[in-house]
Specification:
alpha+beta; Ribosomal Protein S5, domain 2; Ribosomal Protein S8, Chain: A, domain 1; 9-stranded mixed β-sheet; 5-stranded mixed β-sheet; 21 helices; 22% strand; binds adenosine-5'-diphosphate; binds magnesium ion
Length: 598
C-alpha cells in the first residue's frame, strides 16, 4: 500500500465533517468569532435554511488585509496564548474558517479601525484567492454560499429548509442569552425576523432571557445563586407549575460558552425530582463560571462538550441551589394559581378574544368554570356552630382566633366538594387541594424517615456475581459504604467482578446485575451515584400516593387545621409530587376587585 500525505483541502474537509455539521454550526462559529472580536452588534442573514446563503456581519475589531490569508488557513488563530489550559475566548482551534472554506464558497471581508480600507479574500472548495481591496465598514462580514456543494454526501443529510432555519434561530438565541449587551438580528426570506436589542447589563440577564424565552418564563421563574469552592452559579429556573414536555429549554453556559452537558441536564432533573413528574422538564438558564483550568472545553471540535475537573462539586452546586430556590418559592406557586383563577373568573364575565397566555403549558391549574350552583350545594359546613360560611356572614371574623388567622394558611372554614379545604387568613381566602397536600406531606415524611437511618436490605440466598470492566468494578467498590446505607450490600469479587449479597428491601425483587451496571455508568459519567436514592424516592412517592387521604374523605375541623399547620411546617409542600400547586391563595383585595368593589 502506498501511504500518501492528504492534501490541505482534504484535511480541512475532514475537519469540517466534525465542526460543520449543518448550517447552524456555521452560524455558531461565525457568531463566536464576532463575539471574540468584541462586536456590539451582529447581523445574521440567511436564505434557503442557510444552505444557499449565510451572512454574518459584525462591528468588531476587524482583520488587517495582510492577515486575511492566515485567518482562512488551518490552525491559525489570534486567540490562544501559550497555555491550552487557559482558554478565555469562544474560539481557539483555528479551524472554523478553513473548514467552511473547504466545503462552501466563502467570502471574508473586513476592515480594522486603523487600516486604510477594507479587503476581501475568497475561498471556494478550498481554493484561496489573492486578497483584494474592497469598500467595507469597520468590522467583518463573512458570507457563505452553497454550503456543502463540495461535499455532496453531507448535503444529502440536510433536513428541509425550515428545519435548518429553525436550528439557526435556536443557535443564535442560545448564544445571545449569554451576551445581553450585544444586539443580534436575524433575517431572511426563509424565516420570521428576530431582533434582540441590547439590554442593559444588570448582572441578572433577565431582560435578555425574557427576549429569548418569553415573558411567561421570566414571570414563572425564580433566580438562583450559589458558590462553592470557587465555582459560581447563577441563573433562573422555572417554578414547578411551569414545565415542558422536553428539555430543549434548558440553557447552560460555562464561562459564557453555551454547552450541552449530560451532567448539567442530570443535575436539573435531580433537583426537580420531587417537584415534577418524570415526563415533564424544567425550563432553566444556568451560568457557571470557574477558573478555565478547572474545565476542559477541548473535548470535541464543536466545543459544546465540557469536562469538569470536579463533576460532583458542579452537580451538588446545581442541585443544592435549585432545591433551595424551589423551597423558597413554595408560596409563589399558590399566587400564580390564584392569578390564573382570577383570570378565569374575569373571562367568564367578559370573554376575551385572545384567551389565556398559559395555553400550551401544563399545570397552572385554573378552574374550567366559574362559581356555579354545584359549588354551593357541595359546601359542607364544618363548624360546631353548624353555620360554616353563612355563619361567618353573621358572626364576622371576630370569633376566630386572631393568632390562627395570622398563620400563612389561616383557619379552616369548610370542606367543599369533598376535597377542597376553604380557609381564611387575615386578608385572603385559601383553597387547599386536600389530596394533593396530604400526598406531599406523606411523601416528605416518608423520605425523611427513609434517609435518616440505613435502609433495610434483603439478603440474597446466593450472592450474585456481576462481571464488569475492571474500572467499573473499582468505582463500584469505592462506593460500597454509600450503597450500604441504601440497603445495597456488595463487595469486590476478584478482578472485574462484584458480589452482590443484599439488595434494598424497598425495591422488592431486583435485577442486581442491571442495578450495579447502571450505577457504574452513572459514577463513570459524573462521579455520583444518585440514581439509587432516586429509585428509592420514587417508590416513596408511589407509597405516598397510596397512603394519602383520597379526595372524598370528610375531614373534621381539627383534622383540616392540623393539615394546614403541617403544610406550613413542611418545606416544599406548596406543590404536589406532580408539580401542581397544593393550594391557591386569593387576596381579599382581588376578590373585592372581582365584585367591582375597588
Ligand atoms: P478561531 O476562532 O478558533 O481562532 P477561526 O477559523 O474561527 O479560528 O478564525 C481564525 C482567525 O480569524 C481568528 O483567530 C481571528 O483572528 C480571525 N477572525 C475570524 N473571524 C473574525 C471576526 N469576525 N472578526 C475579527 N477577526 C476574526
Ligand atoms: Mg472561531
Amino acid at each position: 500500500m502506498l501511504i500518501r500525505q492528504l492534501t490541505e483541502t482534504m484535511i480541512n474537509q475532514i475537519a469540517a465533517g466534525e465542526v460543520i455539521e449543518r448550517p447552524a454550526s456555521v452560524v455558531k462559529e461565525l457568531v463566536e468569532n464576532a463575539l471574540d472580536a468584541g462586536a456590539s452588534r451582529i447581523e445574521i442573514a440567511t436564505a434557503g435554511g442557510g444552505l444557499t446563503l449565510l451572512r454574518v456581519t459584525d462591528d468588531g475589531c476587524g482583520i488587517a488585509a495582510d492577515e486575511l490569508p492566515l485567518a482562512v488557513a488551518r490552525h491559525c488563530t489570534s486567540k490562544l496564548g501559550d497555555d491550552i489550559n487557559d482558554i478565555r475566548s469562544l474560539g481557539f482551534r483555528g479551524e472554523a474558517l478553513p473548514s467552511i472554506g473547504s466545503v462552501a464558497r466563502l467570502a471574508l471581508r473586513s476592515r480594522t479601525a486603523d487600516g486604510d480600507g477594507g479587503a476581501e479574500i475568497l475561498v471556494e472548495a478550498g481554493r484561496v484567492s489573492p486578497v483584494r481591496p474592497v469598500a467595507a465598514n469597520r468590522g467583518t462580514t463573512v458570507e457563505v454560499r452553497d454550503l456543502f456543494f463540495a461535499t455532496p454526501a453531507r448535503l444529502k443529510f440536510m433536513r428541509n429548509e425550515r428545519a435548518e432555519a429553525a436550528a439557526i434561530s435556536e443557535t443564535v438565541k442560545r448564544i445571545a442569552v449569554a451576551f445581553p449587551s450585544v444586539r443580534f438580528t436575524l433575517s431572511g426570506t426563509d424565516r420570521t425576523a428576530l431582533d434582540l436589542s441590547a439590554t442593559e447589563e444588570d448582572g441578572t440577564f433577565i431582560r435578555r432571557i425574557g427576549q429569548v424565552l418569553g415573558r411567561d418564563f421570566t414571570e414563572n421563574s425564580i433566580p438562583i445563586e450559589a458558590e462553592r469552592e470557587g465555582v459560581q452559579l447563577f441563573g433562573h429556573v422555572s417554578i414547578p407549575s411551569y414545565s415542558r414536555g422536553n428539555a430543549l429549554q434548558q440553557y447552560a453556559y460555562v464561562n459564557g460558552r453555551p454547552i450541552r452537558d449530560k451532567l448539567i441536564a442530570g443535575a436539573i432533573r435531580g433537583a426537580y425530582m420531587d417537584a415534577l413528574p418524570r415526563d415533564r422538564h424544567a425550563v432553566a438558564v444556568l451560568f457557571l463560571s470557574l477558573d478555565p483550568a478547572l474545565v476542559d472545553v477541548n473535548v470535541h471540535p464543536s466545543k459544546a462538550d465540557v469536562r469538569f475537573r470536579d463533576p460532583g462539586l458542579v452537580r451538588g452546586l446545581i442541585v443544592g441551589a435549585i432545591r433551595e430556590a424551589l423551597s423558597r418559592q413554595g408560596l409563589r406557586s399558590a399566587t400564580t394559581g390564584a392569578a390564573a383563577m382570577l383570570e378565569a373568573f374575569r373571562a367568564a364575565a367578559a370573554p376575551r378574544p385572545n384567551g389565556s397566555h398559559h395555553a400550551g403549558w401544563s399545570a397552572v391549574t385554573s378552574p374550567s368554570r366559574p362559581l356555579d350552583a354545584g359549588f354551593a350545594e357541595g359546601v359542607q359546613t364544618m363548624f360546631d356552630t353548624g353555620a360554616g360560611i353563612s355563619g361567618d356572614t353573621r358572626a364576622g371574623t371576630a370569633e376566630l382566633p386572631a393568632e390562627a388567622l395570622r398563620a400563612p394558611l389561616g383557619v379552616a372554614r369548610a370542606q367543599v366538594h369533598q376535597n377542597y379545604i376553604v380557609a381564611q387568613t387575615e386578608d385572603s381566602l385559601i383553597i387547599v387541594d386536600q389530596h394533593a397536600a396530604h400526598e406531599r406531606l406523606v411523601y416528605e415524611s416518608l423520605k425523611q424517615a427513609i434517609h435518616s437511618r440505613p435502609l433495610p436490605s434483603q439478603m440474597l440466598l446466593l450472592p450474585e456475581i456481576v462481571d464488569l470492566p475492571e474500572e467499573d468494578a473499582e468505582r463500584i467498590a469505592a462506593h460500597a459504604e454509600f450503597f450500604r446505607r441504601f440497603g445495597l450490600g456488595l463487595e469486590r469479587f476478584g478482578p472485574g467482578a462484584i458480589a452482590v449479597r443484599e439488595t434494598p428491601a424497598m425495591l422488592g425483587k431486583t435485577d442486581a446485575a442491571e442495578l450495579v451496571r447502571d450505577l457504574a455508568d452513572e459514577i463513570a459519567e459524573d462521579d455520583t451515584a444518585n440514581s439509587l436514592k432516586e429509585r428509592i424516592d420514587r417508590i416513596a412517592a408511589t407509597m405516598a400516593c397510596h397512603g394519602s387521604v383520597r379526595s372524598g374523605r370528610r375531614l373534621q375541623a381539627e383534622e383540616m387545621n392540623a393539615l394546614l399547620r403541617q403544610m406550613e411546617a413542611t418545606p416544599g409542600s406548596g406543590t404536589c409530587n406532580h408539580g401542581r400547586p397544593t393550594y391557591i391563595e386569593l387576596k381579599l383585595a382581588d376578590i373585592e376587585r372581582l365584585f367591582g368593589r375597588r
